[in-house]
Amino acid sequence: MQTIKPIKISSAKMNTSERLTSAEMGKLWATHIGNSMSRCILSYFLQHVEDDDIRTLVQNALNLCTEFLNTTTDIFTKEGFPLPIGFTDEDVNLGAPRLFEDEFYVHYLKYVAKAGMSIYTVAVPLVFRKDINEFFIHCMDSTMALVMQIKELLMSKGFIMKPPLIPVPEKAEFVRREFLNGFFGHVRPLHALEIAHLYDNIENNVTSKALIMSFSQVVRSEKIKELFIRGKEMTHNHLEHYMEKMHHENLPTPSFLDHLITTSTFSPFSDKLMLFHKMDMFSMKIRSFGNSMAVDGRHDIGLLYSKSLMHIASFAEDAAKLMIDHGWMEQPPYAADRDKIAFH
Fold first, then answer.
1. Axis-axis angle for helices 22-45, 52-79 (nearest 10)
2. Digit-coded pLDDT (tens) for 37-81
3. How many angstroms separate the Cα of 224 from the Cα of each of 83, 131, 261?
4. Rounded Cα gap, residues 287 and 293, in angstroms
5. How far apart are CA 240 and CA 213, in angstroms?
6. Chain CA centroid to CA 224, Å
7. What is the pLDDT of residue 6?
8. For 108-132, how does the pLDDT look when each residue is reduced to its tens digit (9 = 90+)?
9. DSSP codes of every residue in 112-180
10. Closest CA to 268 of 89, 62, 146, 130
11. What is the DSSP string of 115-134?
């Protein structure tokens, strides 16, 4: 028996002759920029990977982002939409020495796959043109399949621990007001959703910290280096607070990955690519913290995420200012400036 019965309705508003909407333009644009960057990074990873399984995983990821990039290029070309510049071969030096150990590549792929899925899952309800809708569903399904490979590899090679186990409840219960306590009175243990999001934020941030540490080693610009060092220290501080909440409940946490960065100071990437990458991923953290706060009940956890949000928003803004100052910030498609037109 079908759970969802088909509805025999078709709409001319969903055919491929319709103009791209603002949502379709925006999500295609972001997908194009992001995958042009990923192609540079993954191409470099392939130059040094030694483990056969990890090599296959990285190659699969590179094949996907190349396919996505080709599709967005085709759509933009057909629509007469100026192709975003994004990132090119000039932004990567494939001959640079090894900066990361093989294990880091797997953690990194999980880190960025989560970010990619967040773009695609938000896009699907917003886009209507049939070809664009099918493209983002394909992106979502393909990235999900890649995530399954990543998790299998992480577990089979012992690179990661699962989220911690907690007791099965004895019965269904309703909470009292003390459920919200975090600073005063009886403070209840963390519930399952709080643990899940703390675990997820720790997992993301140990990868983020190692990555920004590697970038701070090789970046050429002193101003960008200072920002990266600030970002590394901020991320470490956040990690200590998240881990403290878990350890207080005697719950294990993911380990740091700093040891997976080599001592190389020769940059494989342009300063533009590294700065954009960290600005983009720190912006993604804002969404992650919003999701975490939405399911949080304890006041102390909520305050922790609120402080993290402010710090990360400040970092992302300072990174954006540096991107603009260097002439590296591409402008997304935008609405018509009616006031400007009126006084032309």
1. 150
2. 999 999 999 999 999 999 999 999 999 999 999 999 999 999 999
3. 27, 40, 19
4. 10
5. 16
6. 21
7. 59
8. 999 999 988 988 999 999 999 999 9
9. HHHHHHHHHHHHHHH--SHHHHHHHHHHHHHHHHHHHHHHHHHHHTT---PPPP-PPPSS-----GGGG
10. 89
11. HHHHHHHHHHHH--SHHHHH
CATH of 185-325, one of 1.20.1260.10, 3.40.50.1100, 2.60.120.920, 1.10.3210.10: 1.20.1260.10
Q: How many CB atoms are located within 10 Å of the residue 265 CB?
A: 10
Q: Is 333 exposed, middle or buried (0-12, 13-18, 19+ CB in 10 A)?
A: middle
Q: Which fold has domain 19-156?
A: Ferritin (1.20.1260)
| pLDDT tens-digit map of 240-276 | 999 999 999 999 999 999 999 999 999 999 999 999 9
Residue in this structure with the two tokens 């922790």, named with its chain if needed? 304
In terms of Cα–Cα distance, which of 104, 77, 84 is closest to 331?
A: 84
* pLDDT at 332 (0 to 100): 87
Residue reference for tokens 């960065």: 261
Report DSSP state, residue 323. H
Please list, in sequence order, all residues whose beta carbon lies within 8 angstroms of the beta carbon of residue 237, skipping any fewer than 6 positions away.
none
- State pLDDT tens for residues 15-40: 667 899 999 999 999 999 999 999 99
